[in-house]
Amino acid sequence: MNKFNITIDGKDYDVTVNVTDHNKAHVEVNGLAYDVKYESKNIPSSPLTRKAKAPEAPQVKVSAPTETASASSIKAPLPGTISSIKVKVGEAVKRGDTLIIMEAMKMENNIMTGKDGVVKAIHVTEGQTVSQDDPLVDLE
C-alpha cells in the first residue's frame, strides 16, 4: 500500500493505492474508494538479459557514519530489487538525476535526487533486495 499527498491545480488530495493484481488496484482519494484497472507504460527490462548475466559477488561499500549537516541519505521508497545503479561514488549529481532504478510491484521505479550534490556512498548492489526505508545512496 502506498500513500501520497498530491496537489493538482492548487487542491490537495490524499491518495492511497493498493495494487491487488497485475493490472488492478484499489485506490482511495480523499476517502472515496475506487477499484481501477491500469496499464503500465514503463518499458520493462528484458528478463533474458538479466538472467543471462552471471551473478556477481556482492560488493559492499562501508562508510563510517558522519555527523555533518550537509550529508543526506536517499532511502528506498518501497520494498524492491535494485535493477541498475546509475552513479558512482564521487560523481556530482543535480536535482532530478536518476541515481538508481529499482523494480517493485512489477514496475521499474527511478530513484532520483532531490538536490544537487556529490555521491558520498552507495549502500546497495545490482540485484540486491531492499526493504522500505533502507539507505540506498548518501549525498553530500
Overview of the molecule:
The two termini are 31 Å apart. The chain is globular. The longest helix is centred in the middle third of the chain and has 6 residues, at 47-52. Helix content is 4%, strand content 49%. The chain has two domains: 2-37, no CATH class; 68-139, RNA polymerase II/Efflux pump adaptor protein, barrel-sandwich hybrid domain (OB fold (Dihydrolipoamide Acetyltransferase, E2P), Beta Barrel). Mean pLDDT is 80; it is low at 62-70. The relative contact order is 0.19. With 140 residues, the protein is mainly beta. The protein has one helix and twelve strands, in the order E-E-E-E-H-E-E-E-E-E-E-E-E.
Features:
mainly beta, 140 residues, 4-stranded antiparallel β-sheet, OB fold (Dihydrolipoamide Acetyltransferase, E2P), 2 domains, 49% strand
